[in-house]
Amino acid sequence: MKRFSSIAALTALLLTAAACGDDSTQSSDTASPTTAGTDTTAVADTTAATSADTVAAAETTDPMGEAPMAIISLSPTHTEMLFAIGAADQIIAVDDQSNFPAEALDKPHELSGFEPNVEAIAALEPDLVVIADDSVDLTGQLGSLGIPVWVGPAPTTFDDVYAQIEQLGAATGHVGDAAELVGQMQGDIEAAIAVAPVMAEPASFYHELDPTLYSVTSNTFIGQVYSLFGLTNIADGVEEGNDYPQLNAEFIVTANPDLIFLADSKCCGETPETVAARDGWSEIDAVRNGTVIAVDDDIASRWGPRLVDFIETVSAALAKVPAQA
Amino acid sequence: MSADQRVVRRWWLPAAFVLLAASVAFGAMIGPAGGISSTNWEIIWNIRLPRVALAGIVGAMLSLAGASYQGVFRNPLVDPYLLGAAAGAGLGATLVFIYGRLSTSGWLVDPLPLAAFVGALLAVIVTYTVGASFGGSSLSLVLAGVAVAALATAVQQYLLLRNSDVIKEVYSWISGRVSTATWGDVKLVLPYVVVCSVVLLVHRRHLDVLRVGDEEAATLGSEVRRVRLVVVIAATLGTAAVVSVSGLIGFVGIMVPHLVRLVAGSSYRMVLPLSIVVGASFLILADIPGRILERGSETPIGVVTALVGAPMFIFVLRTRRVPA
User: Fold this and answer.
1) DSSP letters for B122-185
2) DSSP 8-class letter at A108
3) In angstroms, rounded to a whole number, what is the distance separating the alpha carbons of residues A182 and A305?
4) B252-296, pLDDT tens digit by residue?
5) Mutation test of the interface with chain A: which of B40, B57, B164, choosing the one with the most A Cβ atoms within 10 A?
6) B297 vs A243: CB contact, 8 Å cut-off?
7) What CATH architecture applies to the domain A18-186?
């Protein structure tokens, strides 16, 4: 007992010392990016609040004009964002799932974002760690070493996506590049929507996450992509409160979607042919009309700059749906 | 027991402490950030040592609880999760994950360990009440535990199916880990573990009397019901406390007491204290491959305990052949 209470006292002492000693640089760094990350969902709805918040984050993160020069990204989505806003040279390592752009693979990429090894991360002496979810309390553990952590959880709206890009821009000293990227994405997305055919009746679709028929509802950001085009999601309302419901084959065949999007083409080798070969599926309109579309799993699950590619894929697919649908 | 054997057995406890000291030393020295030096002392103190400390505490508590349960139920196959503690803790943790870790991040007290603790305790209380209502024998308690565990697991599975977005987090927690340990976790569980350990150690002679059977123990003057209740409460409370921070680490609570029995005999006067020391050493050592096996990621400790522990266990059973 005695020994442990003295260890506890020693811990407290060391922590206080660490906090006081580096007050000017580290603790202010720690505070702002973390706050910015958790704010994402809260401020996403109002654009004005978002930009004000971003500016505030930029000021507090970067009082001396020093951007982090040793960033570790443990999230493939945010690796794509960081490269797209010109922060590539500041990245010292990415996680083992970060495979885009190709230059990301030139960085050390052995770290795991799923089962993160805190000690291995800390040993690289990063000055900013970017993650998508904090289920294992990286913020707390790395925070005890004075290493700031930025959390960018899966968004629910496009404004969330833009806010995350702007926050990363502010945190890395690329405010202008981030604003430019956001503007370009918004323009490209508008253009993709503009060229999509106007439908007399909204087409229905089924988005397949894996061969066991897990899907997404319109409440997810993947679902939002389809909502842009006014499509009807057959997974909506199937399971109240569950945005990633597992559908059953009978239900899908009965729902008879006009479009099927396969986000399990890379992981599991699903193709329009394998779908057509499934028992009973040949009756579905999407199969008959050849509107079963294989999409790149990564593009259809990340909310980075390639969100535009996903939206353009959907836009192009709509052109193939027969007019009477 | 001859005088010679007594002398030999007395050596096991110091030997176990040497093993523990060596485990702590290895645990502190080995990791992806390298050996101990002044440059990485921050990392070792804040990241690696809390892990070593927590692994030791969890290993000690699970082994002690396992040995105590095995004594009180006179069943060598019993583990610390027997009375529904694991299923209850899992259900509690699942509820917190579904409520959302992001929305609880600002809370004064982290609800995750709290919910796991309450879940484990509730499950065991229900088990005990139900078991007592049909006789209160050790068999009826075990059967009640199986039923309660099945019920809690079913509820948990249903909730997970309806909330599939948290499946990854929940399973990561259930499979057990000490990799996220902080000194805060260590301080959180230590009081429970110390109190429960003392209570269990005080009752180690009673467990020896219970080995002859409830009726015989009663005629020998041991208050069977009171002893069983106290031991079950202490073992459960300790298990619930460590489970709430480490998740469910399996195999340790069965394996360590058996290893101890094989080398030091089956008297609980030796088995309980040795289980504490050997259990702590085993889990500290088992955590080392978890952090260095793959560069940059963690191998769950439950995988290591079973992967290393099971063959070792079989080997010892085959070579020693000491009757339990």
Assistant:
1) HHHHHHHHHHHHTT--HHHHHHHHHHHHHHHHHHHHHHHHHTGGGHHHHHHHHT--STT--HHH
2) -
3) 9
4) 998 899 889 888 888 899 999 999 999 999 999 999 988 888 777
5) B164
6) no
7) 3-Layer(aba) Sandwich (3.40)
In A44-103, the residues whose Cβ lies within 8 Å of chain B are 96
Q: Determine, for residues A246 and B164 on separate chains, whether the beta-carbon distance falls below 8 Å.
A: yes
Q: Tell me how far apart the alpha carbons of residues A281 and A210 are, in angstroms, rounded to a whole number.
A: 16
Query: What percent of chain A stands above pLDDT 70?
Result: 79
**Cut 0.95: pTM above it:** no
Give dist(CA A220, CA A202) in Å, integer. 19
Looking at 1.10.3470.10, 3.40.50.850, 3.40.190.10, 3.30.70.360, the CATH number of the domain B3-320 comes to 1.10.3470.10
Picking from A130, A260, A10, the residue whose alpha carbon sits closest to that of residue B41 is A10
CA B40 to chain centre: 31
Cβ-nearest to A145 among B31, B46, B179? B46
Question: Is A110 touching B (CB cutoff 8 A)?
Answer: yes
CATH class of A197-318: alpha beta
What is the longest distance spanned by two Cα atoms in chain B?
64
- Provide the token pair at A305: 């700059």
What is the DSSP code (8-state) at residue B293? Answer: S
- Interface contact flag, B297 A117, Cβ < 8 Å: yes
- Cross-chain residue pair B164–A245, CB shorter than 8 Å: yes
Cβ-defined contact of B47 to A114 (cutoff 8 Å): no
Collapsed DSSP state (helix, strand, coil) of residue A182: helix
Chain A residues within 8 A of B162 when measuring between CB atoms: 239, 241-242
